[in-house]
Amino acid sequence: MQILEAKNIRLRAVEPSDLKLLYKWENDSSIWEVSHTLKPFSLFVLKQYLESSHLDIFETKQLRLVIELKDSGKPIGLIDLFDFDPFHQRAGIGILINDKDSKNKGFASEALDILCSYAFNTLQVHQLYCNITATNEISLRLFQNNGFEIMGNKKDWIRTKDGWKDEYSLQKINLQNP
């Protein structure tokens, strides 16, 4: 088995051919609240991002990978490491399963497990963290079931059209790398 593969999915680098897919997913305003996005991305900006995506995580401080089904090669989502800090050995992690037919099938859990293993064993990260609104029960369950613990609650942290929401900070410590 390859390092970025599991039973049903693989994580792969973002390719130039993913431009229209990224454009569609990044500009889906229904997920802007969780991605902290306030405006659409242009094709031009996304093309520039793709042109620099070959750069090393130590240089860009981020890594975005496409989640695809192994059997068909169909892209179903994205997973990211961001705010990579090699000195403090930590990074943020985010995930999106955008393909509606692929939700609630365990693919997000597989992808999260793969990326945590890669971050801990290859990048030698000591800790991973994420921030999830208190009302996002699906994401909270996903991360908690994969070993992340709630470390704090930021009151009224996220402003939405429906009012203010609390945001939990979660973290997972690499116990193999003290």
Describe this structure in words.
It comes from Paralabilibaculum antarcticum. The protein is α+β, with helices and mostly antiparallel strands. It contains six helices and seven strands. It starts with 8 loop residues before the first strand and ends in a 5-residue tail after the last strand. Helices cover 28% and strands 34% of the residues. Strand 4, helix 5 and strand 5 form a beta-alpha-beta unit. Strands 1-2-3-4-5-7-6 form a seven-stranded mixed β-sheet. The protein has a domain at 9-125: Aminopeptidase (3-Layer(aba) Sandwich).
Q: Can you tag this structure with a few keywords?
A:
Aminopeptidase; 178 residues; GNAT_dom; seven-stranded mixed beta sheet; alpha+beta; 7 strands; 6 helices; 34% strand
Indicate the low-confidence ranges by residue numbers: none
Enumerate how many helices there are, as a single number. 6
Structural class: alpha+beta
Estimated radius of gyration: 16 Å
CATH architectural designation of one domain = 3-Layer(aba) Sandwich
CATH class of one domain: Alpha Beta
Question: What coarse outline follows from CA principal-axis ratios?
Answer: globular
What is the CATH homology-level superfamily of one domain?
A: Gcn5-related N-acetyltransferase (GNAT)
Number of DSSP strand runs: 7
CATH topology of one domain: Aminopeptidase
Biggest sheet descriptor: 7 strands, mixed
H and E order? EHHHHEEEHEHEE
Order of strands side by side in the largest beta sheet? 1-2-3-4-5-7-6
Protein name: GNAT family N-acetyltransferase
InterPro entries: Acyl_CoA_acyltransferase, GNAT_dom
